[in-house]
Amino acid sequence: RVPQSLNLTFTEGAFVFLVPVALFLAPSALAGGDFAGFVTNFAFYAVFSAILSTALARIMFASAGMMLASTALGRIDQVMCAPTLKKPPRPQKPQDSRVEFADVSFTYDGAASPALSHLSFTVEPGQTVALVGPSGGGKTTAASLIPRFWDATSGVVKVGGVDVTQIDPHVLMDQIAFVFQNSRLLKGSILENVRMARPSASEEDVLQALKQAQCIDIIAKLPDGIHTILGTEGIYLSGGEQQRISIARAVLKNAPILILDEATAYADPDNEVRIQEALAALAKDKTVILIAHRLSTVVGADRIFVLKDGKIAESGSLDDLQKQGGIFAEMMMDYASSIQWKVEKEAIK
After folding, report:
1. Which residues pair with 100 in a beta bridge?
2. Residue 330 vs residues 102, 299, 321, 324, 336: alpha-carbon distances, Å
3. What mean pLDDT comes out for the span 18-39?
4. Distance between CA atoms of 328 and 313, rounded to whole angstroms?
5. How far apart are CA 189 and CA 47, in angstroms?
6. What is the H or E stretch that residue 169 is in?
7. In the predicted model, what is the mean pLDDT of the chain?
8. Mean pLDDT of 106-118
9. Quick check: pTM over 0.90?
């Protein structure tokens, strides 16, 4: 923005540079007896400089708009040209909600090093497993391989004892529900946004899902309830409220496998409490893979895997990892310190 401001200042203020030139030439014009012509020329160049600077500014903004449009079209084209998942010739059905990574490695296109390297772990049906670790450790990448957002470079990812590449993509997606950390709603009614998970659901089913997701207070303040169109007439929801609506969508889908990518990351304290209550109800009797940045969310996990540089550095229960005094224990200490700092900061206020 600084270069743009300097550019606008220079182009819009070009008239200022004519003033010293006029003062320098004025005496000679007076001496030559052609002062009227001098004034006429000065007025012409003053007006011309204003028109020129305005035209340059418009060209600059038009160029910026074209660049943004080109970038947006490029992204749309990238999505439209993305290869579709190939349906296996003889699709198999998963037997249960067990998730298994068997010596899985994955490298993004153009990356110099793998995002995941020989990753192996198992999540039993009904079990809650947390993936934690430093940023860039491979947590979200690992979870993304389960629904085949990408396919493993080597190794096998299994759901219900079946290689995910051998499951019909529609069947696989029916097995998995997601709650991302930055959920966004579409411009439409609350009913339509929640019903995306199961288009055949009735209004009563949607209302029940919203109730389980702690969304009744949101619906109560909207003028048309679940039929309120979001994004019109100043009707918007906060990030935490959008997150609860996305949880209602996952509740309605009722898939046996649940992937939570730190659903409380951007929530305020009040919304975080409600989101935690909603997630507790949602995760009941499901196979849950929890990607945790806030370590307070891993307290109820049956097992914790600490990922670093795409590998499992540590694994075990919460108590076991704290006793080991390794990466996880250090992360917990840092987390506790940050919480204490926030409490002290609030107390000072």
Report:
1. 122, 158
2. 28, 16, 10, 10, 10
3. 64
4. 9
5. 52
6. helix 169-174
7. 83
8. 92
9. no
